[in-house]
Amino acid sequence: MLSAGETSGDLHGAALARELRALDPTVSLIGFGGAEMAAAGVVLRQNYTDYNVMGISAVLLNLRRIFALLDDLTRLMEEEHPDVLVIIDYPDFNWRLAARAKERGIPVFSYIPPSAWAWRKGRAKSCARVADEIVAIFPHELPPYEAAGANISFVGNPLIDTVRAEMDEEEARRHFGIADGEIPVLLMPGSRREEIERLLPPMLGAAEILAARDSARRFFLPVAGGVDVAQIQRHLTASSVEVTLTHDARYALMGLARAAIAASGTVVMEAAIMGLPAVVLYRMSALSYLVGRLLVDVPRFSLPNILLGETFETELLQDAVQPARIAAAMEDIIADGAPRDYVTERLARAVAVLGEPHAARRVAEKILALARSHGRAADENVQCS
Description:
CATH class of the largest domain: Alpha Beta
Low-confidence stretches: 378-385
Number of helices: 18
Strand order of the largest sheet: 3-2-1-4-5-6-7
């Protein structure tokens, strides 16, 4: 049984599902996820797009529905008796589900554990008690879990396998209608409604400034899975800048683009793999920010910056997320010169930290090994009773 609660988790879950089915065609996959996981062969009990909320305020407003989902997935475990529960990121929900699995004698495999290295470090101990095995996707995540006695490993980052251009450059230019001399710039406001509401308006404001300075600049917005397109369209209608929405071949588009304005998250690392520099934004509700400042102890929030331990990509946080500041930072990475060269060279170094290809296959092997060991233990218990 797999559980993933947002766009990035759905993609990771789909990659795992494909590898699990390739390693063992008889495997049965059920759980909670999205369209990507369903396409990869997971029979979904519920779809995450119905529960995709961000921030303390939004979670509180949806608390009853979230607990109803938790109860429903618990019933699924009781009905199906899975050999293992695989939780993929989405920590506040998934670890509650994991605790219920543990109570029912179901092994728990955690893929992409909570960021104990950054905040709420005590979580590492509670996670170590619940999870039979944990696999992280970044090497800097291991120390707090190792100190807590967790069975944790890093076997590479799956983005190395999944992030690649879907078509060559010439075909991509035709596909997206990008003429010679045009400069593609990407707007990537995230996949959650709250992210889009807080980040897309200042992104569009920055795009208006950038377009006024150079008419050759064209703006594209790759629409993430599960996103309400109507919500995005409302913001585009209110803006004077022309933005093209795209729904496919996003990695090929990243490969063509000159620079991006991006919400902090997996998409920034995907852009780095494609050699695309970005100005990275993070903005939340006042309540979430206040709580975060009390609990989080990290000097940077962009993944490439974290991997190298230096802030080479511009990060704008909370009230600094303003159109003029975004546009100014974008000029440095759009124009040829030392600032852009410095950022792209550092991006290549950050990508090298992600490890060797075929990480999803290695994780799938670990999941099957845990499931099979549980199956053998259950058989022995039956025989001994």
